[in-house]
Description:
Blueprint: H1 28-48, H2 59-72, E1 76-77, E2 80-81, H3 88-96, H4 101-127, H5 130-141, H6 144-149, H7 156-176, H8 179-195, H9 202-213, H10 218-221, H11 223-247, H12 255-273, H13 277-283, H14 300-305, H15 314-331, H16 333-349, H17 356-360, H18 368-374, H19 376-384, H20 390-414, H21 421-441, H22 456-467
Antiparallel strand pairs: 1-2
Helix pairs in contact: 1-4, 1-5, 2-3, 4-5, 4-7, 4-22, 5-22, 7-8, 7-21, 8-11, 9-11, 9-21, 12-13, 12-15, 16-21, 18-19, 20-22
Amino acid sequence: MISIMTLESRPVAADRSVEVGWWTPLLAGPVIAAAAVRLALLIFLLARIGAGALLHADTSSYLIPGHNLLFHGSFIADGAPDLLRTPGYPLFLAIAILPGVPAAAFANVILSVFSVILVWRLGRLVFDDPGIALGAAWIFAFEGNSVALSIVLLSETLFLVFLLLSLERLTVFLRGCRLQALAAAGLWLAAATLVRPISYYLPFALAAGLFLVLARVPGLRWKAPAVLLVSVLPWLGAWQMRNWIETGYSGFSSISDVNLYYLSAANVTASLEHRPASDVIYGLGFGDFTHNSGQIYLEQPYLAQHPEQAGWNQAQRLAYLHSEAVHIIRAHPALYLRLGLPDLLKTAFYPTPYGFTRSTTPRAPTYARVIADQGLAAWRLILSRTQVHPWVFLENAVFELLLLGMYLFAARGLMRGDARTACIYLLLGTAGYFFAIAAASVMGPLTTTRLRMPVMPVVCILAAAGFRHKKATMR
């Protein structure tokens, strides 16, 4: 066995500190607190608004194919194979919702509370400091994004559990070079990607990172990236093969083509034509997600805009969306990149956890249209006006201050000298990947804090390290 301590690693004795357990009595505090705050919000919403507060416009697009897979053995929607969603969360939701919508939300809460333990475990492995690990668990127990999303029937919470399990195994590998841990990390990452396709390219980024970290460890330089990819890619390839066999579509999920056409390219077009982004999007035949599977290219609003495609199959329609979007973006690459920066800033700094205001203050005004048509500065101006609902203003102010404080302490935590260099690069690289996805998506008014969800455990761990800042020697 060998252990990686820095980028200039050399073989040394196995790192026995990897044998950190999965529980300590001190974890009872943040776990109970996390469960209490999530259950309190769940009960409050059920009592005040009803089960509808737990649903989202995207919920039906998960439930329809999941229900068909569970009861009919086919992952279909709208009478055709579903290419938009991958099977992980739809199947989970179809099972969890059998006793009712509140039961499915309660299952999400359990997963979110388990994430607190995973954050503690990850922090313990990275810093070898029980205080930092416990602090990270406490911070994540009250982190607004995870609290708000834990009760909404969306895929983020399940995805985060699988992602954290993968990062935990990757950290164990970096601490002790156990290839079986690396293989397990790949399996968890494959599960995460089958829940949310957003991590589709992450295995390649991690493999490249492993190659760089292990550049001076000849026995593992090629073996480690290969083990990771071999444990991930067959599962993803199997789903792509299913798509190709059933429809001729060779992609992993059509959500990438839908977002590219209806969000990225549409926002570029809106900027060029000085039109509201929402007008352009709906002018392209964007349908209503609320009561269908989300496969817009099969819906009547889309066919009304493209009647010539009535006889086309799914693969042909998706090829059209992709080619049209790529043509627009390639014609205006500078504008595309410029539009990505505000989206990145909104993802990183938008204060209110996703759906929180809408759920707790259903009559409060919404500002997505203003953000889309007038930009982030106009949204900030609106929040400062006195006619804004006072709860909305206070909520945004509080969450913004908390978020900025977390970032500041996270930056301070990066200056600690007692963390494993390779483990820190793993956390930063993973966070950077998701921020890069947010910047590249150019999603305009639909950019939300949902895209920030996978980054927040990293921020919590580094913020906890910042609270206990001290100078030490890098190991």
